[in-house]
Amino acid sequence: MRGPGEAGVELLSSVVASQDDLHAHFGGIVPEVASRRHIEMIVPVVREALQRADVGWADLSAIAVTVGPGLIGSLVVGVAAAKGLAIARDLPLVGVHHLEGHIYSATVEATLPFPSVVLIASGGHSHLVFMRHHGDYEVLGRTLDDAPGEAFDKGARLLGLPYPGGPALAELADSYDGRADPLPRARLPGSLDFSFSGVKTALARLVKEQELDAEGRARAAAAYQESIALSLCERAIEAAEESGYLPIIAVGGVACNRRLRALLSAKAEEAGLRAIFPEAKLCTDNGAMVAAAGAHKFAHGGGESLDLDCAANLPLKSWARGNRA
Ligand code: KG4
Ligand code: ZN
Q: Which of 7, 39, 78, 272 has the fewest CB atoms within 10 Å, i.e. the most exposed one?
């Protein structure tokens, strides 16, 4: 990652070691298996990222690393590797919150409009964040139960689709070309929080009560996808309007969902709002988004000592409140 400059950060290379095949066998992520694979992959991935970017260690000015939240075993591997490299190469360390990584995926070859409302929709989180400026966040709403990606994954399991469920359910839903009315959804008047457990129960009931043929399964997938996408869009638009008709930045694994992108773009336009999405491949977890967040934080004077620690649960905290630079 180079920058940030006038046009955001420049992505020099992005290497992702997916563990999907490994975990598909178990139907979900096995934490112990994940951290062991991290140990094996971290050095080759760093080496390949440097090679593909055609840069050497001497060209680097800092190392960014995720400090949480997430699976603690995997976080420990990342932080230990980053510390080792920082000591060996005498480079500063920048700790990045996972959600901050998602937010900054939108700064690759782009600048963020401020203030704005960020919708973070991933496998573990569903947050609406008011972002005043770089590093200045205020959480407006979050999920009360499942995250949208989790809802996609659980819905996929109910429909007998393979892991990872989100993309499989989305593909099945997109194959349906009829009209799919959304399933009953939770309404939380007066709040910007989300809830996805109701729609999951509605799908479970549908699957249990009806003998679904291939078309019925595709229709159910489309209805389920529509419900999740609508919940996310409605809340994001409400938050943007309430905050003063701000632009909406949608990030996280679920933000690569094609239906969500189309629906949010259309509804935002109707409401006279701007909707911004990072490139789809930067929405799901990747190192480039962490580097992008780290680069911005470092440019604003951020950096950590070698005491840097990680945590499985870590709230999103501002590092630049009041900073309008
Ligand atoms: O952000 P992410 O890569 O990891 C977390 O931080 O959780 O998000 C992963 C989640 C998974 O639940 C996955 O099923 C979901 O994003 N996902 C999708 C799509 N691609 C990934 N959900 C719906 N449609 C997609 N195309
Ligand atoms: Zn993520």
A: 272
